[in-house]
């Protein structure tokens, strides 16, 4: 229960105090790290979660969505019009290079059974199926 209430409380606190906290350069990621450290630190933490559990996966996705939304709202339209070359450079050069690097790592992993300490997937994956359709 606290795993659901804690992120909601953090969002409410951030909404109420973000103007005041911005004066001290406290951003949403810094606040989330601080709250996480307070909830999970010590000999008797308030929040104990299995790092490989489903709830952790869902909380991480929610946190990433909130952080990306908050970061996107901080870009002013005027700045974007004046310096459009920066986002275009990131999307035009940085994104393809990132995809190419990910492809290179995936190809490396598909040729070897293990990649360092990571277990890599086999080259052939099982046939994808839709859960609602019978086989």
List the helices and strands and how they pair.
Blueprint: H1 2-22, H2 28-40, H3 54-73, H4 77-82, H5 85-111, E1 114-115, E2 118-119
Antiparallel strand pairs: 1-2
Helix pairs in contact: 1-2
Describe the structure.
- There is one protein chain.
- The protein has 135 residues and is an all-alpha fold.
- The protein folds into two domains: 1-74, no CATH class; 77-114.
- It is built from five helices and two strands; from the N terminus they run αααααββ.
- The chain has helices at 2-22, 28-40, 54-73, 77-82, 85-111, and strands at residues 114-115, 118-119.
- A two-stranded antiparallel ribbon has the order 1-2.
- Strand 1 and strand 2 form a beta hairpin.
- Helix 1 packs across helix 2 (28-40).
- It is flat and about 45 Å long.
- The mean pLDDT is 76.
């Amino acid at each position: 229960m606290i795993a659901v209430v804690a992120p909601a409380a953090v969002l409410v606190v951030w909404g109420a105090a973000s103007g005041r906290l911005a004066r001290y350069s406290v951003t949403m990621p810094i606040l989330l790290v601080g709250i996480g450290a307070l909830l999970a630190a010590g000999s008797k933490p308030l929040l104990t979660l299995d790092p490989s559990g489903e709830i952790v996966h869902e909380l991480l996705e929610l946190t990433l969505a909130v952080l990306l939304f908050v970061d996107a709202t901080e870009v002013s339209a005027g700045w974007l019009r004046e310096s459009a070359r920066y986002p275009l450079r990131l999307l035009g050069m940085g994104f393809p290079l990132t995809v190419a690097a990910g492809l290179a790592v995936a190809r490396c992993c598909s040729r070897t059974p293990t990649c360092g300490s990571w277990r890599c997937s086999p080259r052939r994956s099982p046939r994808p199926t839709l859960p609602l359709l019978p086989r």
